[in-house]
Specification:
The chain is 32% helix and 24% strand. The N terminus is likely disordered. Strands 6-5-4-3-7 form a five-stranded antiparallel beta sheet, with helices on one face. Strands 9-10-8-11 form a four-stranded antiparallel beta sheet. It has a two-stranded antiparallel ribbon with strand order 1-2. A hairpin with a 4-residue loop joins strand 9 and strand 10. The chain is elongated, with a radius of gyration of 28 Å.
Length: 330
């Protein structure tokens, strides 16, 4: 049988396969002379599986394995290092396994099943672990959003070929449906929402579009040149308040009291944030620059009586307007 290098594309290892090969190598290297029956019992697999593992070590990783009849086990005929031990760590295996949990953010999109199948293949839990770390890490449930596969396929095609999209769109704060012509740059995930970031021709600026609000989507034959600064992240001005950006960056100053003081100190909300405590007044103030006005307003409102905006004036006025509207509902 022909020998292959350890980078051969034809051998694709799952985590249990890798762990078996690693352990077989260690037992042979330690001159414990393992045999097929004992290895099968150790891994709780069939002897055929172990025979295949030994063949893979020989043929794909050039392991100099021989069988000693007198000691009834395998040994190395010369010094040998298993190459994959240098490129895959236990922590990296755990990262692969726990990436399955993070897949919940893709649920509801046509991408989910393919990604789930891929990670299921490469990140099966360890053969020796009854309660893998995967089961000890979870993502809290969010409202499910279902993305139509036909719509998804159209957007993916437009992204792949730099094709301009035409569609009808009803914004969250807009009363009417508007026609849009958009150069699609990126798909973004925010919670369970899937968003399209791109250049809107009618606005002559980059905008964000929620896929669930897009209607009558058509992929045109017109192409566009993807600019170097197309990435959504390059349009943020230090803020970390999700996907939506509005206008130019401004300086924000917000005061938190009671339990919200520890809340605001628990995260980095902006790259340039400054947090100051005033123990005499029992408040904590955060100051930062951002161009994410609506998201910051929602953030403050979510803290109710425990957050108060101080600047900019536009934010203060909008916050007061929302409070007055809420009071009318009492």
């Amino acid at each position: 049988m022909a020998k292959h290098s350890s980078t051969d594309k034809d051998l694709f290892l799952t985590v249990p396969q890798f762990e078996r090969l690693k352990e077989i190598h260690l037992q042979i290297a330690e001159k414990r002379y393992p045999n097929t029956r004992k290895l099968a019992e150790y891994f709780e697999v069939s002897e055929i599986t172990i025979t295949r593992d030994i063949a893979n070590l020989k043929n794909f990783y050039n392991a100099p394995i021989a069988h000693d009849a007198s000691k009834r086990g395998y040994y190395y005929t010369e010094d040998y290092e298993f190459p994959l031990l240098k490129v895959i760590s236990n922590n990296q295996i755990n990262v692969l396994a726990n990436a399955k949990t993070m897949l919940s953010f893709f649920e509801g999109t046509p991408l989910y099943k393919d990604a789930e199948n891929l990670l299921e293949t490469i990140s099966q839990s360890s053969y020796k672990t009854e309660k893998p770390l995967l089961n000890r890490i979870a993502v809290a449930p969010n409202p499910d959003v279902k993305i139509d596969k036909v719509l998804w396929d159209k957007i993916i095609r437009a992204l792949e070929d730099n094709l301009i999209l035409k569609f009808d769109y009803k914004g969250e704060w807009k009363p009417n449906v508007e026609s849009r012509v958009v150069h699609p740059y990126q798909l973004l995930l925010q919670g369970k929402s899937v968003l399209l970031w791109g250049y809107a021709e009618e606005r002559k600026a980059c905008r964000m579009f929620n896929l669930t609000r897009m209607r009558c989507v058509a992929v045109t034959n017109r192409t566009f040149n993807l600019p170097e600064d197309y990435s959504f992240e390059k349009h943020l001005d230090g803020g970390k308040f999700g996907a939506f950006v509005q206008g130019e960056a401004e300086e924000y100053k917000i005061e938190f009291n009671s339990y919200a003081r520890e809340f605001v100190k628990s995260c980095i909300w902006a790259d340039n944030q400054i947090i100051e405590d005033d123990e005499d007044r029992n408040v904590t103030t955060i100051t930062f620059r951002s161009n994410q006005f609506n998201s910051i307003l929602e953030w403050i409102l979510s803290k109710g009586a425990y957050a108060k905006p101080l600047a900019p004036e536009k934010l203060v006025n909008e916050w007061k307007s929302h409070i007055k509207l809420m009071m009318k509902n009492l």
